[in-house]
Amino acid sequence: MTGIIHFETFLLAGIVLNLTPGNDTIFILTKSIGQGKKAGIISTLGIGTGSIVHTLLAAFGLSIIIAKSLLLFNIIKYLGAAYLLYIGYKMLTNKIPLNTVGIKYAKSVDYLKIYRDGFFTNLLNPKVALFFIAFLPQFIDPSFRNAVLPFLLLGITFITTGTIWCFILAIFASGIFKKLKDNKKVSTYINRICGLTFIGLGIKVAFIDRK
């Protein structure tokens, strides 16, 4: 009925892949440690939204264009790398210490920006697009006439399990934030470490290929 084959295998493989650390995992951890639990959860939602877009692109065949066009692949790759470098630079040059509790904390964090950063970090990673068009088709019945439906169902399943895991990461990492946020010296180091991490991710993305 759905055109999906070996769903149990897909579910298990998807969970294992979600547990494997990657760019999205590091992004969520740095946001959670640097700005608290809510920031980590919002960044998870942003990344999940980016994955939804990738699922739609794969389902309707647009990701195949990215996979076959070296120029388009490189454009997306360098845009993603530049965006990560920009985030890292902003964190390195940020002179404001980690936020403290209360109303002042709530007003000082731009959650819309965190959501946007998570969204574009995921969306501008061409490896994610290539993953969806390489992994999902293995669990779709080739004789099924409407390939869009199984693509969407598999994509939603993968995103759901990944989002649950990322929420767990955000909550766990935010516990570190609660212990360190009132220490101004430590907060400065955290900002710098997070900034350098994003710069490292940007460099990593800039050098990935389609293999």
Report on this structure.
The protein has 211 residues and is mainly alpha-helical. The chain has one domain (23-206). 78% of the residues lie in helices and 0% in strands. The chain contains ten helices and no strands. The protein has helices spanning 7-19, 23-35, 37-59, 62-68, 70-92, 103-108, 111-123, 126-135, 148-180, 184-206. The longest helix has 33 residues, at 148-180. The protein is globular and about 60 Å long. The two termini are 34 Å apart. Residues 98-107 have low confidence and may be disordered.
Strand portion: under 5%
Q: How would the global form be characterised?
A: globular
Helices and strands: which structural class?
A: mainly alpha
Number of helices: 10
Radius of gyration: 18 Å
Residues in helices, as a percent range: over 70%
Low-confidence stretches: 98-107
Strand element count: 0
Largest sheet: none
Let me know the average pLDDT.
78
Cα-to-Cα separation, first versus last residue: 34 Å
Helices and strands, in order, run as HHHHHHHHHH
Number of domains: 1
Oligomeric composition of the shown chains:
single chain
Keyword list:
globular; 211 residues; mainly alpha; single chain; 10 helices
